[in-house]
Write a structure and sequence with these properties.
Pfam families: Cupin_2. By secondary structure, the protein is mainly beta. It is built from one helix and 22 strands. It has two domains: 96 residues, Jelly Rolls (Sandwich), CATH 2.60.120; 92 residues, Jelly Rolls (Sandwich), CATH 2.60.120.
Amino acid sequence: MHIEDVIIWYNYFGLLFEDNLSNYPTRLFGYKTGELSEPAIMQIDNVGACFGYVYSGQLSVQDSLVNWNVQKEQWFHVPTGCNLKIYPLTTVVICQRLYYQGIHLMGGPIEKTGRLRYIDGCTDSLLCCPPLKGDPCLNLLHFPSHTKQTPHTHPSIRAGIIARGNGLCCTKGDTIELEEGMVFMIAANSVHHFQTHEHSMDVIAYHPDSDWGPTHEEHPMINRTWVSGHKILS
């Protein structure tokens, strides 16, 4: 299956993209309700963990254990599928990592910049960390104004939403203008980079995999458990 280097959605409601053939199968959903007379009720099947971010408005996220009210600039993560009650004037993006069992987490509002250094003066924060090394994660990526990134690739897809500001996404064959509320997908191994001009830009980025995270041999609980004054060796 050929996937375009970068796909952008301006207006959306429902399933936008599905990848069942890679090692990290993913579904991408986007919902933009507009001025509805009453909330929209949607269901995401119980086939994998959901990572969501609310760009505007609010929604209720419900499964067999939780019933959360998630508001603007907040994120959430549920173990499998969920039921959504999406209120009028709400925009939300949800990435579902198929066949992966997640955990219950929510947080936000997101901060103005990231906590970690990234390439070319950018910063990022892990919003939802991988519980185990190799698991998927959700990130905030901050581009200061007047940024021109080094062209680069990722070994798996990237998907999410432009949370704040604006900029450009440049590929070998195209330059795409990015604005708040746009949902995006970047194909695996596609050469790309981002640019900003007068304004900064913040992106919520889902990764379907990772090469970092705790292991059974290395994690804070066991690392800081000492016997006779010495760390326990695995």
